[in-house]
């Protein structure tokens, strides 16, 4: 944050809750869907993962939901990507409603 960085990308191996706390509204957080694991996701798992990430990282702003690898493998089913978009539209609007 001292370098003037505006956003940091985090891995699924990072605790999004801890990173959010450390960022303290001084830097945006980008992440942290596991694009490799998404190859095996179905609709229910996709919805669950996206909702959980939104609930953990989006309250208070400063969060951009993304994969954590920088690219989505071709093997990720189109239905998973469409379900991510649908879930974001449904649950990712500010102000985030806690469940």
Shape: globular
- Strand proportion: 5-15%
The string of secondary-structure elements, in order, is EHEHEH
Q: Look at the helices and sheets and give the structural class.
A: alpha/beta
How many extended strands? 3
Instruction: Strand order, main sheet: write it out.
Output: 1-2-3
Number of helices: 3
Verbal overview:
This protein is an alpha/beta fold and 99 residues long. Helix content is 37%, strand content 14%. The chain contains 3 helices and 3 strands; from the N terminus they run βαβαβα. It has helices at residues 16-23, 43-57, 78-91, and strands spanning 7-9, 28-33, 63-67. It has a 3-stranded parallel sheet with strand order 1-2-3, covered by helices on one side. The longest helix has 15 residues, at 43-57. The model has no long low-confidence stretch (mean pLDDT 91).
What is the element layout, followed by pairings?
Blueprint: E1 7-9, H1 16-23, E2 28-33, H2 43-57, E3 63-67, H3 78-91
Parallel strand pairs: 1-2, 2-3
Helix pairs in contact: 2-3
Can you summarize this structure?
By secondary structure, this protein is of the alpha/beta class. 37% of the residues lie in helices and 14% in strands.
Which properties best describe this structure?
three-stranded parallel β-sheet; 3 helices; 3 strands; alpha/beta; 99 residues; 37% helix
């Amino acid at each position: 944050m001292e370098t003037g960085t505006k956003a940091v990308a985090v891995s699924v191996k990072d605790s999004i809750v801890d990173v959010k706390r450390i960022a303290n509204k001084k830097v945006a957080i980008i992440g942290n869907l596991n694009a490799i694991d998404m190859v095996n996701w179905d609709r229910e798992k996709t919805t669950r993962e996206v909702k959980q990430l939104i609930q953990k990282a989006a309250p208070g702003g400063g969060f951009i939901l993304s994969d954590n690898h920088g690219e989505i493998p071709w093997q990720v089913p189109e239905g998973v990507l469409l379900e991510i978009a649908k879930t974001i539209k449904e649950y990712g609007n500010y102000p985030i409603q806690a469940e």
